[in-house]
Specification:
Layout lengths: L1 H8 L6 E3 L2 E3 L10 H4 L13 H17 L2 E4 L5 E3 H4 L24 E3 L7 H9 L7 E9 L11 E12 L12 H19 L3 E6 L14 H33 L9 E11 L2 E11 L2 E11 L1 H6 L7 E9 L1 H8 L12 H4 L19 E8 L11 H12 L3 E11 L6 E9 L8 H19 L2
Parallel strand pairs: 3-6, 8-9
Antiparallel strand pairs: 1-2, 4-5, 6-7, 7-12, 9-10, 10-11, 11-12, 13-15, 14-15
Helix pairs in contact: 3-7, 6-7, 11-12
Bound molecules: adenosine-5'-[phenylalaninyl-phosphate] (FA5) and magnesium ion.
Length: 456
Amino acid sequence: CSQVCSRLYSNGSKIIEIGGKKYQPDGNFTNVTPSMISLTGRSLHLKDRHPVGILRDAIENKLNSTDNAFLAYNTYKPVVSTYENFDSLGFPKDHPGRSKSDTYYVNSKYLLRTHTSAHELECFAKAKSGETNKPGFLISADVYRRDEIDRTHYPVFHQMEGCRIWNRDNTAYTSNVEPGHITKMREDLKKLEQQLHQQQTKVVVEDDTSLDGNPKQNYMTDLEVDLCSKHLKRSIELVISDVFHRKLESLRKTNKDASEIPTELQVRWIKAYFPWTAPSWEIEVWWQGEWLELCGCGLVQEDVLKKAGYAPDSTISWAFGLGLDRIAMLLFEIPDIRLFWTQDERFQKQFQKGIINTFKPYSKYPSTMRDVAFWLPQTENVEKIHENDLMEIVRNAAGDLVESVKLVDEFVHPKSGKKSLCYRINYQSMDRNLTNNEINALQEEVRNELSRKYNV
Ligand code: FA5
Ligand code: MG
């Protein structure tokens, strides 16, 4: 914190201000940096001429094309409580996602949300209270995670959360007629399957539907689990088939040999674990020679529904969380995730509302490497250096002028046993040429900060 706070305090203020709200920093927790705070409020997912915004809009439209079931919440502010982000969802106290090396804390009670699931409880409560008359909702927002630096990782990305709710007709279970919600789920599923059937690009699904090691919740019947998980999976497959179809079509138009472009899309469902869903899965799509993870999902734990005000046993729901940036990068052929954040109009003016087109790179500016090597501190009372802390130092010094940071060498001295690390920082601007003097100054700042903070 000393590093962060001294910067925050440099304008004479002892208060952190994000999105018009004020927060008291906390020496033991605060690790959100001014450079991160400056990225809050950009709302790329709301811009209708930005790849992330265009994709968000396309997915919302597709999901609502079947039965217009989803209300979209897209303006939630990025600061949430640790309760909303973790506790409300049943994250154990020692879950690694809570650690300061992975999460940006504002203070001990508030943080920059790490996923859109942070707003699930509130939205379920709204649905329960009758404030909305739709059986589902979508939440799109910017999310924040401390992470490595390279072309596909950025400390801010975007997610869309989706949830769908059925009220259980419990009284019918005592009679011989099919409960109303089962009939409704069958109808909803049928509509979805018909729509999926009409998609021009078919999805070929690999799915081990057994629940071994991925158990259902006791309050639900096998039939309910079957119908609900099919509805969940078909909804996501519909989105994927729609979005990727547009890409395959445009590749077919521009490729010399159109027969090389696949006419089907291979996807697979993998069992997963999330504290607030059971059973849970992730979906991966086979794209240009590799499996790409797009989304985590599952059937919402009864506990979360109860916290939102639903009576025990009364409700069945599914939830998913879809990453937008990776899909947008691949659809629009964006070579570096930093481009999403550039204000350069050569980027901005290439996109139009509702259209998925291929990005045309403007001149790529040369990159320059600098290495920094240091002996790891050995004494116990020195703070350990987590790789994400190093990333943060580089980000603070050079912001979006860094293309990547990679560990290139590790050395253990044979006699002393001391270990040294060498990181290679690749400097490159998206928008202009950098001078050597400028890069040297940035590198000097990284070196000074490393030695000041960790005494290396
Ligand atoms: C989650 O964030 C859960 N909240 C998803 C969820 C919601 C599960 C509702 C169950 C019910 P995960 O960390 O796997 O899970 O992230 C979800 C998706 O966000 C990933 O599949 C991926 O598409 C995207 N994502 C995750 N990390 C990154 C990253 N560093 N950069 C870009 N996209 C990412
Ligand atoms: Mg995941």
